[in-house]
Here is the input.
Amino acid sequence: MVRCSNNLVGILNIVTFLISIPIIAGGIWLSRQANTECERFLEKPIIALGVFILLVSLAGIIGSCCRVSWLLWVYLLVMFLLILLLFCFTIFAFVVTNKGAGEVVSGKGYKEYRFGDYSNWLQKRVDNHWSRIHSCLQDSKICQSLIEGSNTKADDFFKKHLSALQSGCCKPSNDCNFEYVSPTNWTRTPSSSLNNPDCTTWSNDPKILCYGCQSCKAGLLDNLKSDWKRVAVLNIIFLVFLIVVYSIGCCAFRNNREDNAWKRYP
Here is the structure.
């Protein structure tokens, strides 16, 4: 007699098996189409994720539908480790993103970002990989819209809402007190300050701007903070789903053992 739990595990894993195919295909496509180091960096993790989902799904399908107990046991072990890993990552993500926020500047529509305001762990990770991140930010052309808006008046620019990366990487810090010429062109005046190291790092060269500034790193961290919090919330939903699937899988494993025992002792 076919058990309901075995069917459910089989159906759920057929769905995940089908999902893994476009993930792998996307990784392969990206490896062939990648033009920058940033895009090439993504291809291997995507392919690895697709292959992992495919193998786990196959183990679940064969283990539940073909009543292969040892394979279903491996499937449940992997699921348990995945649940544990996601749980730890979710807690960790909330902890490391608890610090840091943009600083509201009076009379400005954008915020200022300070690298030291964020988690020490995130700061170290960004510092260690900054050369690659720096290249990726330049390739992404996040400042392009500001460069094209060279006719924007000062009052309009100061009221403009900028993303964390645009505020940190595409303009000098508010501390510098530079004179505005255009969104990506600023000049020093006698009243300008160089107390902030970012003030000497800034360049009007569109290829340099403030990509080497601490404020640019801070803008990236603010983006990471927002993204990690969204991922953590999604992880909670995914964890609930995995726990339900794991529970059903345990029932299917118990059914397999009972069926095997029945066949052994008729």
